[in-house]
Amino acid sequence: AGQVFLKVAPLPGKLAVENLDTATFSSTIWIFGFDGSPPTRVGGFSPSPVAVDRMPAWSPDGSQLAFTCALPNRWGICVVASDGRETVIGVAADPLPVFAPEWSPDGTAILFTNSPGGLSLIDPNGSNLRAFAMPVLLTSAWPAGGRFSPDGTQLAFESYINYYDDYDLCVLRI
Known about the structure:
This protein is an all-beta fold.
């Protein structure tokens, strides 16, 4: 049994597919071309038999794909070219997970959630890691799942005090 999550590239012709095996919780990411060429698996950096490559996100121009990846002894945001060639292994958050990459509208930064709760940015080449300073009201909450406004001037994210209730939707001018 499994689940499939799809992300269509902004430019025609490419599709990223996350295949989650619900029995083993192993997940893999594949890039498909609409031209009938064979799919290309991306990621697979972890030596663990359980693959944990998740949450693909296309760059605004469709030339790169960012995703959450399990690396040896750490988690990261990995970036690959649209043809599946690995170009950069981004941030590591030893050993806590990072997840939910989101490209800035201009493609110059990747926003992601890090555990135990926070939002950070990194350049697509893996440099210039920076954390968002959360307003004082949110310092006891767990921000997650950030998304940029279309013009890149605001950030919407969910924030919650505990994992199961007390959710808030927040908007932060950046």
